[in-house]
Write a structure and sequence with these properties.
Blueprint (H helix, E strand, L loop, with lengths): L2 H11 L4 H11 L2 E6 L1 H4 E2 L2 E2 L1 H16 L3 E6 L2 H9 L8 H24 L5 E6 L2 H4 L1 H16 L3 E6 L13 H11 L4 E6 L20 E2 L7 H4 L11 H13 L4 E5 L5 H6 L6 E3 L8 H8 L6 E4 L1 H10 L8 E5 L7 E5 L5 E6 L4 H7 L4 H8 L13 E3 L4
Parallel strand pairs: 1-4, 1-7, 4-6, 5-6, 7-9, 8-10, 11-13
Antiparallel strand pairs: 2-3, 9-10, 11-12, 13-14, 14-15
Helix pairs in contact: 4-6, 5-6, 9-11
Length: 395
């Protein structure tokens, strides 16, 4: 049994303590990332200004307890649609990006005014995945957030849709929020959704499905069976929220998924009311460096390993050697992030490859002395060093 599975078993043994754990985590949280989706922020006409006002009031109250608060807000595209509805048709990525450019300024204007009425300072931060891919830019972003939070400002974060291309996109703001947890060193993630929480069954198939109070092992959920499709105004849906909760759990951050349109939902949650779904963090966590390494970009290819190599990685904590590689997919370069998969296609993890795909195809299946003969002396003993490998990555 792997260390991660042992941790999940240990966690399940203490499942009865989750209520106390939740109360303690909410009371003790010092830095909170709150994500709000388009389905919460918008109505049939575009941006719901009453909802923006309510959210600003709730976040200001959360901050009053001495907490640092970061808001990840969707809604720019939907706000732009509201402006353009009567004159323009929005179809395709360029139109969405243009609608975001129109909507983002309006969204931020309303946040600025709503926070200012409560004596709060808000700050706009627009990011692409490329901003986190570079370690230097990642650290610059961390320093900027630290300064804003030291000043008591509330950063309002969104993806920079206007310039983002496919390879640089987070995919949705749920993903962006989960990566921000690492940047700001948050200890709590709150996701405001249009649903009442996470349902035990897909409510599209079973209208009587109940909301789960607690998820002990978010990694063990069958997301395909549990979750429906994406929402009509956003790009996420519950599937992406649970993927983000999986990432958060890996660095020891619990997630609270609550119905964002219910009155004073944040105040009620922080006051101890049992509302929404509590997603427990992993008992054994990964380092923040490995977390950044695994999620700073999408994998550029796949390295398939044989049964012995898979066992050595999962159970022995070993590095991946050339002899254990049996297939290579993609045209990645040296230093690229790649998936590591078993022969049945199961993804074991992700890691940084010391070899380009072309080199790896030449040496896969070979022993160390044979690699030296093929590539010369300038080679690495490992394809992926264990320090640059994250098992059970959420990809």
């Amino acid at each position: 049994m792997s260390g991660r599975n042992e941790a999940r078993r240990d966690q399940a043994d203490t499942a009865g303590d989750w209520q106390a754990e939740r109360r303690r985590a909410l009371a003790d949280a010092r830095c909170v990332v709150v994500k709000v989706g388009s389905a919460v922020l918008t109505n049939g006409e575009g941006l719901d200004l009453d909802m923006v006002e309510s959210l600003a009031g709730q976040l200001s109250a959360v901050q009053e307890g001495g907490r640092r608060v970061v808001l990840v807000s969707s809604g720019a595209v939907a706000a732009g649609r509201g402006v353009l509805r009567s004159c323009c048709e929005i179809a395709g990525m360029p139109h969405r990006q243009a609608a975001s450019a129109i909507g983002q300024s309006r969204l931020m204007h309303h946040y600025d005014e709503a926070f200012a009425r409560r004596g709060r300072i808000s700050a706009q931060v627009l990011l692409t995945r490329d901003d986190l891919k570079s370690r230097n830019r990642f650290l610059n972003a961390r320093n900027t957030f630290a300064a804003l939070l030291d000043w008591g400002a509330i950063p309002v974060v969104n993806e920079n849709d206007t310039v983002a291309v496919h390879d640089l996109k987070f995919g949705d703001n749920d993903c962006l929020a989960s990566l921000l947890l690492n940047i700001v060193e948050a200890d709590l993630f709150v996701n405001l959704t249009s649903a009442g929480g996470v349902f035990a069954e897909n409510p599209q198939d079973n209208p009587d499905a109940c909301v789960m109070d607690c998820i002990d092992d978010v990694h063990g959920l069958d997301l395909d069976g549990l979750c429906g499709g994406k929402t009509s105004v956003g790009t996420g849906g519950m599937y992406s929220k649970l993927l983000s909760a999986r990432r958060a759990a890996q660095i020891g951050v619990p997630t609270l998924i609550v119905p964002g349109r219910e009155p004073d939902v944040l105040a009620r949650a922080f006051a101890g009311e049992a509302i929404g779904t509590w997603v427990r963090a992993d008992a054994r966590t990964v380092s923040r460096r490995k977390y950044w390494l695994a999620y700073q970009s999408d994998p550029a290819g796949t390295v398939t390993v044989d049964e012995g190599a898979a066992r050595a990685l999962l159970q022995g904590g070993k590095s991946l050697l050339p002899g254990g590689v049996c297939a290579v997919e993609g045209g990645f370069g040296s230093g690229a992030l790649v998936r590591v998969a078993a022969q049945d296609g199961t993804v074991i993890g992700v890691g940084l490859s010391n070899y380009a795909a072309a080199e790896l195809r030449r040496i896969m299946g070979h022993k160390r002395h044979e690699v030296a003969a093929i590539l010369g002396d300038a080679h690495y003993p490992e394809v992926i060093h264990r320090d640059n490998l994250l098992l059970d990555a959420v990809v």
